[in-house]
């Protein structure tokens, strides 16, 4: 009984309980869904939106390091894309800051047809982003705000 209380109380904040949907992982004030299936970047974005979320927007090194802790060795779409070669932007319109990006060495290659971003999990932290063709099928990471009740 006391171990159940301890594990439940770890979710409690000074404002209440911080909750995520079943199967999602919480970090700070966000919930993350790492998909089991694969789809294109556009389909991934639509799938996340359909669940009331968006492809993940990485706002800090701590978030980058925490999210990439997955036992799977796969590529996951994130919410960074380029409408024009080399002009990267986040799905939520957060300004792209190259000094707060986590590209693998030699990336982004900015090839004409590589306009989407994947996070390779697990890779050496925290630099594991790669620009890829958006029509290739990869897993996705969706992000939604955690609910405090």
From TrEMBL:
Q: Which GO MF terms does the UniProt record name?
A: carbohydrate binding
Q: Does the keyword Glycoprotein apply?
A: no
Keyword vocabulary terms for this entry: Lectin
Q: Tell me the domain of life.
A: Eukaryota
The membrane-spanning stretches of this chain are none
Q: Pfam families, from UniProt?
A: Lectin_C
Q: Which residues form the C-type lectin domain?
A: 27-143
Gene3D superfamilies for the chain: Mannose-Binding Protein A, subunit A
Name of this protein: C-type lectin domain-containing protein
């Amino acid at each position: 009984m006391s171990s159940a209380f301890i594990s439940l109380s770890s979710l409690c904040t000074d404002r209440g309980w911080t909750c995520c949907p079943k199967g999602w992982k919480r970090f700070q004030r966000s919930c993350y869904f790492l998909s089991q299936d694969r789809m294109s970047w556009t389909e991934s974005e639509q799938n996340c939106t359909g669940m009331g979320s968006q492809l993940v927007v990485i706002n800090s090194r701590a978030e980058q390091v925490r999210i990439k802790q997955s036992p799977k060795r796969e590529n996951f779409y994130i919410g960074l894309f380029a409408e024009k070669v080399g002009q990267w932007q986040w799905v939520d319109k957060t300004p792209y800051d190259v000094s707060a990006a986590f590209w693998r060495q030699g990336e982004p290659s900015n090839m004409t047809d590589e306009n989407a971003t994947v996070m390779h999990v697990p890779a050496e932290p925290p630099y594991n982003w790669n620009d890829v063709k958006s029509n290739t099928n990869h897993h996705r990471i969706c992000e939604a705000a955690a609910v405090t009740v």
